[in-house]
Each structure stands twice: as structure tokens, then as C-alpha cells.
Amino acid sequence: MTTVDGGFRATVLTLYPEMFPGPLGVSLAGKALQDGAWSLETVQIRDFTTDKHRMVDDTPAGGGAGMVMKADVLARAVDHVADGRPKLYMSPRGKPLTQARVRELAAGPGAIMLCGRFEGVDERLIEARNFEEISIGDYILSGGETAAIVVLDAIVRLLPGVMGNVMSGETESFETGLLEHPHYTKPQEWEGRRIPDVLLSGNHGAIDKWRRSEAERLTKERRPDLWEAHRASLKK
């Protein structure tokens, strides 16, 4: 557990606390964690069981495959750490995570993140403790821990002082409603492929225009949903 006064505070409720910090312990997120820009606490859900077998799940009501995490056990874990921070449940049926939501979370005091396993958690827990369900994509993972790491990585890099060049974050995919333009670096020619001449021209106006054009082209080709949303926003 790493704690810090002030800054973004993340508390992760999980059956596998050993999965953290994982990738969050290296690179930008790891340095920020070490420097105290954010804090990470893991809570073992099994510590809030009351039976000798430390059971956290039971069979689904109505029958069916798999097991469901118990509301009473989870509620005790949640109530132990609840302090007004947003409560997030990593779920494939949740609202898709967006860069806009990431920015909102990064501007807040932190988050309490519940990582489900098995078939998920008792619906009553989600309702009673006012959890926001978040999805990182239309696919299924073994548990919510990997999703929580993704969400935290997206948040932490936006915290003050974490990225060395603030401008690098402002031009990335989704920040402007478009996918990001292509990037190039030395050598000038590689395997017969050259860096576009405009990027070597020194004409910053032309470079900006090219980058905008490429961002629009890629968005139209790869994410027509984003392109339509972008066009609609321009009409407002």
C-alpha cells in the first residue's frame, strides 16, 4: 500500500491484491506513485467474510452456470473504505470508458474500484452502494483487475506533473474528438519509406494543417462513430 496526503487516492477491492501495482508500478505511473502524485491501496475482499471457509460467492438465484459474488461480503468491504469518492465497478455491461470521463475522474479526489470475478456481483450491491459500472471494451476478461489497471493508467497520466509535456496529452486520440495523426522520427528514409515532406518543411502552419487532415482521414476510416459525433459537435 502506498499512501499520500492530497492527490488522487485509488482504493481497489479485489480477491487478488498481488496483481497491484503491476504495470502501474513502472514508467510514468510508477514514478508518480513513488513521488506521491497519487496513492494506491488494495483491499482483500475475503477479509470481510464471516464464515470459516471465507466464502465470497454463492450459486446464482434462479440457477445457471458459475458463481456470484455475495452482496453482504462486498458491502462490508465497500463500507470499510467509503468516504465520498466515486465508486466504480469494472463490468462488461457498463458504460464505455471515454477520455472525457477519465478527465473528470482525474480532476477528482480519487476512486474506489471494485473488481468482480466469476459471473459478477449481486445486483443489489451495485444498487445499494451506488456503483458506476464502467466497461473498457466489448470483450470479457477473467476479472476486473486488468480493467482497473487500464482505468487507473488512463487517469494517472493526466494528473498534474505526471506527463513532462502537457501538450503531448492535448493532441492525443480522443482529446479533440478525433483519432491522433501519424507520427514519424529519424531516419528520414527507412526501407524506401520517407517521412512526409511537409513534416520536414519547417512550415508550422502547413504541418498543423496536415496533422489535422490526417486525423480527420483516420477517424473517418477507422471510427465512423467518432467522426459523426465530431461533426455533430461542430454544428452546435
From TrEMBL:
GO molecular function: tRNA (guanine(37)-N1)-methyltransferase activity
Enzyme class: transferase
Its biological purpose: Specifically methylates guanosine-37 in various tRNAs.
Any Pfam family hit: tRNA_m1G_MT
The protein's name in its UniProt record: tRNA (guanine-N(1)-)-methyltransferase
Subcellular location field: Cytoplasm
UniProt keyword terms in alphabetical order: Cytoplasm, Methyltransferase, S-adenosyl-L-methionine, Transferase, tRNA processing
Binding sites annotated in the UniProt record for S-adenosyl-L-methionine: 116, 136-141
Domain tRNA methyltransferase TRMD/TRM10-type: 9-228
Family: Belongs to the RNA methyltransferase TrmD family.
Gene that specifies this protein: trmD
GO cellular component assignments: cytosol
High-level lineage: Bacteria, Pseudomonadati, Pseudomonadota, Alphaproteobacteria, Hyphomicrobiales
Quaternary structure annotation from Swiss-Prot or TrEMBL: Homodimer.
Transmembrane regions: none
GO biological processes: tRNA N1-guanine methylation
Catalytic activity: guanosine(37) in tRNA + S-adenosyl-L-methionine = N(1)-methylguanosine(37) in tRNA + S-adenosyl-L-homocysteine + H(+)
Known EC number: 2.1.1.228
SUPFAM superfamilies: alpha/beta knot
